[in-house]
Structure formats: structure tokens, C-alpha cells
Amino acid sequence: MTVVNHAALAVSTVIFALRPDDASALKTLWLPLVRRTRQPHEGQWALPGGWLPDAEQLADAAARTLHETTSLAPTYLEQLFTFGDVGRSPGHRVVSVVYWALVQSDEAARAAEGENVRWFAADQLPGLAFDHNKIVEYALWRLRTKVEYSRIAHAFLGDTFTLTQLREVHEAVLRRPLDPANFRRTLESSGTLVDTGRHVAGARHRPARLYRYDDSDAHSGHGPSGAPAPPHT
Amino acid sequence: MTVVNHAALAVSTVIFALRPDDASALKTLWLPLVRRTRQPHEGQWALPGGWLPDAEQLADAAARTLHETTSLAPTYLEQLFTFGDVGRSPGHRVVSVVYWALVQSDEAARAAEGENVRWFAADQLPGLAFDHNKIVEYALWRLRTKVEYSRIAHAFLGDTFTLTQLREVHEAVLRRPLDPANFRRTLESSGTLVDTGRHVAGARHRPARLYRYDDSDAHSGHGPSGAPAPPHT
DNA sequence: GCAAAAGTGTTGCGGGTACACCCATGC
DNA sequence: GCATGGGTGTACCCGCAACACTTTTGC
Fold first, then answer.
1. B224 contacts chain A (CB < 8 A)
2. Which domain holds residue A85?
């Protein structure tokens, strides 16, 4: 078979985690970036990623580079978009298949950070290499849009969680307060929550119920059940 | 710069048009396929597409192959998904950036058709080459989902149209009847329609108003105005 | 008891659906 | 006039936002 093109194929990932903001009690979205150690854009911050190995699935390559930069495993990973503008990388044509990922907040606290890996507040990014600012902006829009109609918010949390914890994730992502009463009813009537029967004690108020998500598909958040979700590859 | 991967980069397009179905008065979704003239899958039907030229934008490559197979220009073109499973093409790794397109129905009637290009009803496809059946299924899901919340249906029509024509497009895509009265109000209150003042005469009933779409953005169908739409590249 | 957050009840508004009804044209 | 689709009016239902209220804990 003859390969007639020479564009390089890269895979990059926008990784989101929730972190407590300084001064503000609210959690905000943060993401890890890596400093480029070679041309082009040497010294600038960029999304984690790399060339696509011949024998590796696209999503696997995204999860791997994610792990290599943060030492974390994603709880959610989905293809975002493929960026391939002719001029987006100086010198050579590069087509980047970009994924976006969510990682658990408590794990993100002990994520790797070093000279060439640093976490940034998602809405206060410096000028990034290539078209990565535009990519992050689009990923943020997708995250905020999808949180409103899908059940991805729990990817920031552990297996079990209280409704208040889940509501705080929504509030942090959407940047607006939500009514606790209505939030509770909306999720309870969605049928995706399972009451574990356990409670969280210790706080000086009524103990909150612990929930977990119903994994029996049918609630994937993509149209009517049975509809094709975005391919998982 | 060192290119460290050798996966081949292809661009393919799922092209939709509405055509009158035999016997049934309703229009249904059709799409053009090309017969493969070489291995692998020689003789089988496949999506139009080709290798990505070094200096061509992704969307341009999609529009070009679309034009080469159908002699048509798309009225709507959007990136669908990038398919890159390791085993999806026998022998060599192929990553396909897939677009989906809508073409006008009246033009589709005079679209090119020949020995190696043929139109098929979208829900009665034969077994296609590679993973193209899965790709079409996903494109159909995206089209049907997006018609319900976005304003893409007019891409099947000309510059001006009656509300009945637009409703028939929705009905054909969604495969269910819609109430004419409510359909009218929903669209009128959406603020995206502009009354041209002209009417369609000649039928033996009250003449229908001709509308066109308001092009002054702000109604792109992607979240709140100003939100990043899927990159247009 | 008091503070604080969990959890419940209730009301009203708005968008969508169903369906009855009037309007304008060709024949 | 009559048939046919264009176009309007209206009542109902349901989901959601607002907000008052009750419950259960720690101190």
C-alpha cells in the first residue's frame, strides 16, 4: 500500500481537574500543561501529547500521555476534535487528534508537578504554543455544555458522593449557584442515582446520604437508549 | 523535524440528501457511495474520500472529494469524528478524519451517478468496506440529534422556502409527523426566520409565505451566543 | 437551644403538545 | 361552493425555578 501523505499525526489531551482556588472557597477548573523543550515554541506551555505510535489506539495514546505527565488515570476520556489547519505548526503539517479528560479532584492534589509540568487555572492561561489556547477554549465549552445534559460530573468525584458534593461540581463548572432542592429532585428523578444507604457523619449538621451512579447503561447521556454514542475508540 | 509515525491520514465524508422514495410520498435520506476499485475490500461500496494532501485543509479535502464524486457543493459541512482503530484497515494503519455534509435536494437530483458511484437509502445500506457502516450510523445519529436543536435543516433547501417545506425536511429526517401549527410557532419565536414578503402562488390553496434564514450569526445553534462553535477548520 | 446543612412541600411560569377553528386560493 | 393546505387561537400538561418550611446532627 502506498502512503501518499506526510502530515504528522499527533494526539493531545486537555485534562481537567477541580482544585480549590486561593482565597476563594469555591473550586475552579485547572489543567496541567507541559513546557516545550524544543523548537518550535520552545519554552512555551502546551497540552500534553505526542506522536501517535503505529500500533496504539487513539484513546490509549491520549490516556498514556495523560498518565506520563500527571501520573493520573482519567475517569472520563472522550475525543474532542481533530485540528489540522495547514499553518498551525510552523515548518511541517501536523494533524492533532485531541481528547479531553476528567480526573478525580482528590487524586489531582497529589498529581506530579515539576519544572516542566505545571497546573494552571483554566480561565487564566498564558499564551500557549501552537493553537492550544483555541483548543482549550473549545474543550471548556464542551465540558460546560455537556455537564448540563449529561452525567459526567461524577467523573470529578469518587465512587460514592453526596448530592452536595455533586452539586458543587456542577456549580464550579458552570460558575453559578444551583438550588440544592431542585438539584436534588432533578437528579433523583433522572433515575441514574443509587442510594447506597450509607451516610456521611461527623459534620455538625444532619448527615448526608451517599450515592453512587447506576452503571447499567441506558443512561449514557447520548440521546435515546440504544442510540450510538460517540465511538469509544 | 522528525516524523515518528507512519499511520496514513485519510479524509472521508458522509453526504446526505433528501430524495423522494419510491411508492412512498415522503422523502427519505440518501447518500452517495463509491465502489472500491482496488484492495482492500475491492468491489465493495465505501464512503467518498481519499488521502489528505500535504497542503490542503481538512474541510477542503472533504469538500473536494464530495465534489469529485457527486459534482455537488455542500451547503453544510462539519467534522464528525476521527476513526483510527488499529485494526480498521487490513495491513496498514489508517486514521480517517470523517466529515458529514448536507446537499440541496433539488441539486441532488442531477448529481453524478455512474458505474462506480451510486446513491443508497441511508437506512438500507449494503455491507460497506472497512468500518464505514458504523460511521454512517453515527453520522445519522448526529444529523437526527442536531436537527432537533439546531437550524441545519434548511441546508437541504434553497435560499428561500416555505414553512411546509422546512417541516417536511424535519419530518423526513426525524421519521415522524410534526404538527404544522406548533412547528410554525416554534420557528417564528426562534427569531432565526425572516419573512421575505413573497409568496408561492399556483397551488389550489392559500399561498404560502416564503422565508429565508437570518444570517446575522447569534443563532448558530451552539450554546449561548459567543460560545465557541466546533472549529470550522 | 442554636447554627448549619440535609431534605420536603408548594406555587407559578414557560415551553411544548393537542386540537379546534378561520383564511385564501384553484377549480 | 368545495377541497386543500396556510395560518391563528386556546387549553392543557409537565418540567423547572423560586422559596418557604421541616429534619437531624454537633456543639
1. no
2. 8-148
Nucleotide closest in space to A163 (CA vs C1'): C6
Overall residue count recorded for chain A in this entry: 233
Q: Which residue has the cell 409568496?
A: B199
Residues A141 and A169 in one domain: no
Same domain, A131 and A185: no
The answer to whether the C-beta of B184 is closer than 7 A to strand D is yes
Give average pLDDT by consecutive 10-residue segment, chain A, 233 residues. Answer: 74 95 78 93 96 96 93 94 95 96 82 86 95 97 95 94 97 96 95 93 92 74 49 59
Q: What is the CATH number of the domain that holds B37?
A: 3.90.79.10
Whether the CB of B162 is less than 7 Å away from nucleic strand D comes out as yes
Protein CB footprint (7 Å) on chain C nucleotides: 3-10, 16-20, 23-27
Contact yes or no for B108/B72 (Cβ under 8 A): yes
Chains A, B: CB pairs < 8 Å: 114
A143 & A185 share domain: no
The pLDDT value given to residue A224: 39
Report the distance separating Cα B13 and Cα A226, nearest Å.
24
What are the tens digits of pLDDT across the range A95-142? 999 999 999 977 777 777 888 999 999 999 999 999 999 999 999 999
What integer pLDDT is reported at residue B91 of this predicted model?
87
Rounded to whole angstroms, the Cα distance separating A74 from A15 reads 8
Taking every pair of Cα atoms in chain B, the longest distance, rounded to a whole number of angstroms, is 70
**Residue in A1, A53, A223 closest to B141 by CB:** A223
